[in-house]
Structure formats: structure tokens, C-alpha cells
């Protein structure tokens, strides 16, 4: 069963993405972290029923990743805005087999958090 996991607000800078998200929701964003594999950083805000909003941008202090950044951040231009939604599935491999445009599963971690996510080859 496909379920919404979170919404993504992208910005040319994290500050712009956070400002847009906070102004839109009226909620403060909480500390997120860095995604070394994709050279990005984020902040998050909890929503209802376990969902959350993620503000994300290229981390200017990170080395360039070996592949395109997720959510199209390498080519993102313009004002911060809602850029993507991320769904949760019970079997990622089966979902990717049925929907190959979703990309290839990648292993992700940050601190004690670990997850797998399908990311299109072009980001």
C-alpha cells in the first residue's frame, strides 16, 4: 500500500526553503541534518499522523556528490516552493520493479537513522 511519508520544499538555499515553509505553515522548522551522499542539508517540521515537511537545499559546504542530487536540486532555480512528495511502500524493491521510473534504491543514514529510498538516476 502506497502511503504519503513527507512533503519536500526545495530552495536555492536552506534559509529560503525554511522561510517559505515556515511562512506557509505557520510552524517553526526543527533541526534536520546533512545528507552526505547527496550533498544536501535540511530542516523538518512534524505534521499530522506521522507525516512531516522537509525543507532542503544544496549544502554549500559539502563536496559535490558522485551522482545528481535528489529532488532536482542541481538545477533548482527560483523561489523556494513545494517540489516533491515522498511515499512509503511496504516493499521498496517490488515497487521499483513495478515503477522503474522511481529510480534505484539507495541506502541512506544519518546518525542512528537508516532508510532506503528510490532516487531517479537524474536526481
Q: Could you write a compact summary of the structure shown?
A:
This protein is α+β, with helices and mostly antiparallel strands and 123 residues long. It has helices at 14-25, 92-98, and strands spanning 3-10, 30-35, 40-46, 52-58, 81-88, 104-110, 113-119.
Note the main attributes of this structure.
single chain, alpha+beta, five-stranded mixed sheet, globular, 123 residues, two-stranded antiparallel sheet
Which helices and strands, and how do they pair?
Layout: E1 3-10, H1 14-25, E2 30-35, E3 40-46, E4 52-58, E5 81-88, H2 92-98, E6 104-110, E7 113-119
Parallel strand pairs: 1-4
Antiparallel strand pairs: 1-5, 2-3, 3-4, 6-7
Structural notes for this entry:
The chain has helices at residues 14-25, 92-98; strands at 3-10, 30-35, 40-46, 52-58, 81-88, 104-110, 113-119. It is of the alpha+beta class. The strands form 2 sheets. Strands 2-3-4-1-5 form a 5-stranded mixed beta sheet, covered by helices on one side. Strands 6-7 form a two-stranded antiparallel sheet. The longest helix is centred in the first third of the chain and has 12 residues, at 14-25. The model has no long low-confidence stretch (mean pLDDT 93).
- The helix content is 10-25%
As laid out across the biggest beta sheet, the strand order is 2-3-4-1-5
Order of helices and strands: EHEEEEHEE
Count the DSSP helices: 2
Uncertain residue segments: none
Shape: globular
Structural class by secondary-structure content:
alpha+beta
User: Radius of gyration from the CA trace?
Assistant: 14 Å
